[in-house]
Amino acid sequence: MNNLELNKIYCESNLETMAKMPNGFVDYVLTSPPYNIGYNQMNGDDTKKYKEYEDKLDDYFINQKNLINELLRVTKNHIFYNIQMLGNNKVDFLNLLGHFKDNIKDIIIWQKNMIPHIEEGVISSSFEFIIIFSNQQPDKKKFYDGNFRGNFGNVIKTLNIHNNPFAKEHKAIMPLDIPRMFMQKFGKENDLWYDPYMGTGTTAVGAIEEKRNWIGSEISQEYVDLTNKRLKPYLTQTTLF
To answer: Per the confidence metrics, is the pTM higher than 0.85?
Structure first.
């Protein structure tokens, strides 16, 4: 069943990639799925946040439910699922929390700099959720693979600052310190991390810097090419550390 190479991004849907994975194939997942917000109306035009993907699905709940079910199948430990609750995904997001309530081990609030909302009477957003779905005693608060004791809280703070050279090409990116933080706090060297929405490769860069293995899925060939370009300096070094 498993014919996947490690440390490679696959240009295909995440369900296609996971279909090649046996149960418990990866140690951890870190991902930020599309939020179902449609066009980037903040720009006053129809600029899309994602290439080759329409971020407005009528079946968003079913889409993400199928994704999470497969992630739970292929993951040994935890899934770090970053999402923001917005007007177009609120009901589906809350339904996902209810549907997977027995698989949620904890929830982290990611506090960011506030983005003022252009519409009167709408509360501006200054945080996102990182839902931790788990196969390791999700009914317990304790993380037995955690590399922390009293120094890791459930509110993390970071500005929208990053060193991704392709931020202009991808409108929804994650700062590098997020994957590096989770890799430092959970598991060990050579663990395998999977990102089903790899985008421009931030999870892969974090894995390389933290001496982890990784696999990614990404349906956009443009983003795959950008990721491989971004990773080339890391992979061509004779000594990474």
So the answer is: yes
Note whether residue 40 is domain-resident.
Answer: yes
CATH number of the domain that 224 lies in? 3.40.50.150
- Alpha-carbon separation of residue 42 from 61, 160, 173 (angstroms): 24, 16, 16
Q: Are 126 and 115 in contact (CB under 8 A)?
A: yes
Residue 16: CB atoms within 10 Å: 12
Q: Where in the sequence is the domain holding 221, given as residue range(s)? A: 8-235
CA atoms within 13 A on the CB side of 70: 18
Q: What are the tens digits of pLDDT across the range 130-142?
A: 999 999 999 999 9
**Domain contains 2:** no
Sequence-distant (≥ 6) Cβ neighbours of residue 125 within 8 angstroms: 84, 86, 114, 115, 117
The DSSP bridge pattern shows strands 125-134 and 75-83 to be: antiparallel
